[in-house]
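Page 37, top half.
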Amino acid sequence: MGRPAPGGAVSPRGAASGSFARAGLLVLGLTAALDQATKIWLLFIYDLGQRGIVAVTPFLDLVLTWNYGISYGLFQQNTELGRWSLVAVKAIAVVLLGWWLKETRSRLTALSLALIIGGAIGNAIDRIAYGAVADFVLLHVTTATIHFNWYVFNLADAAIVAGAAGLLYESLFGGSAKKAP
């Protein structure tokens, strides 16, 4: 239920933000758990590191890479200070995004923030446990004349991108989008 408003009535803002925050917590927990379960299976059960490149489809391979930086391999950190600095920055971002999630009154914003936070937590767990983030999905296009590889990524990265896309959509079209009857 929401927060009591003056006079004992329940505040609609509190009810909406509370329910969206609870749903967001569920989504972020599931995102981080699925990310970690996938990585644990690929690292320790399937042993992707020993298998090399595993073709899944004509455009998708599994290959283990370790990212010592942030998105797209930027800001590579090969020292303990660098590693823990990235963990600290990520922790600050999670706290700030968590505060935003707690206050949101939009279902899409809550879902988007939950995906971003869950992905950030999943990648932070890697950085703490292994010193780097385990990436393993390689999308590519290969024809007779073209060979293009996308960056290697993981489930947490995909969740972060989906969350960012949701926030972008919400900021551009959320307030003025027509509601279905």
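Page 37, bottom half:
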Amino acid sequence: MKLTVNDKKTLSLLLEDGRTTDATISESLGITKQAVGRIRKKLEKAKIISKYTVQLDYERLGIHVFALVLATLTNEWQKMGELEATEALGSDPNLIKAFRVSRGEITHILVYAFKNQEELTDHFQKQKNDLLTIKQIHAGTHIGMSKDENKELFKKVLDESVGSEVSPEVMSAIDRFKDSLK
């Protein structure tokens, strides 16, 4: 999908505050509220934006330990299929991100969040996991997190994509990947 200048400016404003009103965006861009509404609908229909969410502060919610886990699907799950495995992975409330690795000994890179080190230890010791073989766990605290947002990356992509169009094949692959993480 090719984005217009106003599409990109609207996305930039929404990145700053997802609750920004159409009136505020129209005033900032010098276009009508109706035009902004059409841009929002176009971006939603293209699945570039899909929700307006709250940005949670992990520390204030009592989540202080994060774990980066390198794992491999067990043979049973590899035979059953990736969709079933992905759905099973998604049922773990401590899992906050999952990345499928295309080749090699590791099949998934997983990011977990916990209140403390004890909860992390309990989670992996008590969890009967016939889904994954865990290869490595790298734990750290929230203090070590330098970034928790992608605003700068998205703005960079928007700035670099002036006049460029993402191929339908690439968009389809991105959509399939995003759906697999839900």
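Margin note: The chain has a mean pLDDT of 80.
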